Amino acid sequence: MKTIIGVRFRTGGKVYYFDPGRLQIKKGDHVIVETARGVEYGTVVCDPKEIEDEKFSKELKTVMRVSTEKDDERDAENRVKEKDAIPIAKEKIRARGLEMKLIDVEYTFDRNKIVFYFTADGRVDFRELVKDLAGVFRTRIELRQIGVRDATKLLGGLGSCGRVLCCHSYMNDFIPVSIRMAKEQNLSLNPGKISGMCGRLMCCLQYEADTYAYLNKKLPRVGDEVITPYNTTGVVQSVDVLRQRVQLIVEVGDEKEMEEYPVEELKFTKRSKGGKNKKPGKDQNREKLSKEELKELEKLEKSED
User: β-strand 38-51 against 255-262: which pairing, if any?
Assistant: First the structure.
């Protein structure tokens, strides 16, 4: 068994694990550690815990020290320098006429390197820009192109729920999200309602996806024919996934009536293991969209991770 702590270097950044050694460290402490990029200042995000040796193939680096007051002051100075560097870098980008958008700037703790994060539609030749920046900041320069989801993770913001974005507040890594998850939860397929600030599908679509997939397997699809407890045939009009109830249109003589039953009282061909029937019903959520919304939805489907 070995003892580890989790350290995060940026808000919403990935958690890295280190050996606390003999130091008394707790969650919330700031520590100085050595990384592949050099000496870094990080925040402990989980208390020391013991894990099995087999879970880590590589030897963990040991924490150098708990941060001192001088270390805290240096980190605060770095944050100020990062903000000051943004307008300078943007001006250099405009001067070179480069099609790129600067997202964030990060100094390493020892100030031996500055990392500039940017987004762009394609590849960008920034070799001359690196020379311009090196001439201003007099240190090593790294330009790193990132995707729109990573950019949003760095910048943060409030989601449609009114809370801080999940990717910025606590998520270590992005989780796969697909249009199927929205369909399983019977959500509107309007791109404006199921995409986040990054323009991609919202990560929270995945949170209840397994539960809805399990519950949907017990239900017929809209448009399916089912047999009621009274041996009459009805066509599924709508389903209540969480309550496990089904609304049917049943022909009674020359009239049609709306009836509702618990799913366990109905007889029908259940979905296959993959969650599909042999004759799936129409995708009514998609039919409600305008042509413009359909085009945006197709873009979202193509951009799925």
Answer: unpaired
